[in-house]
Amino acid sequence: MGGMGWWAQPFGGLRMMASRLGLTDAQRDQVEAIAQSHRDEWKALGDRALTARQALNAAIAADTIDEAAIRQRSADLAAVEADIAVARAHARAEIFQVLTPDQQAQAKALQEQFQQKMAARRRLK
Length: 125
What we know:
Elements: H1 12-21, H2 25-37, H3 39-61, H4 67-98, H5 101-124
Helix pairs in contact: 1-5, 2-4, 3-4
């Protein structure tokens, strides 16, 4: 997805969880349709994120430290990341409308387990 890492892909986690959630074929088709409807938006966000990250890295690596430029490039990247966060929230909401209440509860539990595993990994480093 453009320049976006796995963390920014709104559907990756749910696609991986699909078998654990017991999605019906119809639900899988709906989730795939939602993903396809946002494909161009996510590519654009990925491209923006990549460009912003590259600009920040270039400002950091410049021969002369330009604090204002680094701060501006950091703010630019933060703005893209905020747009990604909002888009992820919208995508999650759309997908959750496809799920049954039990599947929603399962998905939330799986997301919590994943977050706990990631936190544990960070503590080990």
